[in-house]
Specification:
Elements lengths: L1 E6 L3 H12 L4 E7 L2 H11 L3 E4 L8 H10 L5 E6 L4 H9 L4 E4 L4 H12 L4 E2 L1 H7 L8 H11 L4 H8 L3 H15 L4 H11 L3
Parallel strand pairs: 1-2, 1-3, 3-4, 4-5, 5-6
Helix pairs in contact: 2-3, 4-6, 7-9, 7-10, 8-9, 9-10
InterPro entries: CheY-like_superfamily, Sig_transdc_resp-reg_C-effctor, Sig_transdc_resp-reg_receiver, Tscrpt_reg_LuxR_C, WalR-like, WH-like_DNA-bd_sf
Protein name: Response regulator
Pfam family, one: GerE
């Protein structure tokens, strides 16, 4: 049996995925978590073969979950199922050791087949997205991404500095670097462009 944990913040989608996968004779759904933090606790408790997760969730994102699993060297493999058809997200997912990246509008039977493939040690990546992912590299480093995300949420340089335990000057430097790399005029434009490309 392929033992699976689901992480999805939308109750209807979570229920639909659980019902869908439960129909497969070789797949057992161990549980379904509504957010990243509870998914992390369940991964440690249940030790599933696969974690099927969305990207954007309250608390920890699916990418942060994958990074945590990778950092702790847990055997659970991660498959992301998302609406985000953005090459930047896929690149970051692959960097975080994700074994599968599928779009929610793919046919239902593709999901079960992808999970079997990943369980056997393979990879299941949306083909069109895989091509795009290598056409435009993400220019931001992790710290620039972090600072830009908070700036996009409306935090001032001082508030970002406090939250990340940095000096205001360092925060301004990171923002300036990000703006320069993205070739835009200000932090809001930088945030919008990075979001659109899937780099945040």
């Amino acid at each position: 049996m392929i033992r699976i944990l689901l992480a999805e913040d939308q109750a209807m989608v979570r229920g639909a995925l659980t019902a869908l996968l439960s129909l497969e004779t070789d797949i057992e759904v161990l549980g379904a978590a509504p957010d990243g933090e509870s998914a992390w606790r369940e991964v440690q408790r249940l030790k599933p073969d696969l974690l099927v997760t969305d990207i954007e969730m309250p608390g920890l994102s699916g990418l942060e979950l994958a990074q945590r699993i990778q950092r702790h060297e847990l055997p659970t493999k991660v498959v992301i199922v998302t609406t985000f058809a953005r090459a930047g997200f896929l690149r970051r997912a692959l960097d975080a050791g994700v074994s599968g990246y599928l779009l929610k509008d793919a046919p239902a039977e593709d999901l079960a087949e992808a999970l079997r493939k990943v369980h056997r040690g393979g990879r299941a990546i949306d083909a069109q997205l895989a091509l795009e992912a290598w056409s435009e590299p993400d220019p931001l480093n992790d710290r620039e991404r972090q600072v830009l995300r908070l700036a996009g949420e409306g935090l001032s340089a001082g508030e970002i500095a406090t939250q990340l335990s940095l000096s205001q000057g360092t925060v301004r430097n990171y923002l300036s670097e990000a703006i320069g790399k993205l070739g835009v005029g200000n932090r809001i434009e930088a945030y919008r462009l990075a979001r659109q490309k899937g780099w945040l």
